[in-house]
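Changelog note: in this version the structure field was regenerated for every chain. One regenerated record is shown below for reference.
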Amino acid sequence: MISDKRVRILMAAEALINKSGLEAVSIHRVAKQAKVATGTIYLYFKDKDELMAELHERNLRLFAEAFLADVNTAQSLQECHSRLWLNALHYHQENVNVQRLWVHLETLPKNARHKALIQELFKPVKLFFSRGVEQGCFKPLPSEMLYALAFGQILEICRFSQLREANFTKQDMDAALLASWDAITIHP
């Protein structure tokens, strides 16, 4: 059993969302799942909204850490892209429930703190895309659109692999990585 009650509560909420959806989550059910008293949750979170906001932020931080691992500006644009793509792929392959969780968490209202956190965590990605556009390598599109074109398909690849038991070969994955690169780069 996890000794840190805050983390245990967050993980219990995550498990309930994955099992029953966001609407079915209550403080009482989270307490039961975490094996703590209902009142204990209120020592850490003022209400369900705050609990859900922190769960969302925790998951954003975990993804950003994994996504940006071993990426640095000394690498070429294509090396950075490959590392980011493979990091995202491995994260989603290793965290199969995160897709379902994100579907629910993305419906939560965004506040200024949440938006600032996203800007802070993913600033290196925005700089990566800006660098590519400035160098004339990437299509002159907003960074959010370049992100969607470069990395958005990874969730679908993992979903097909997990839910439909599609078996993609290494050649398939290499081709998907190249297709992702082709989607954002300018071709003479």
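Spot check on this record: The CA atoms of residues 134 and 140 lie 9 Å apart. The radius of gyration is 19 Å.
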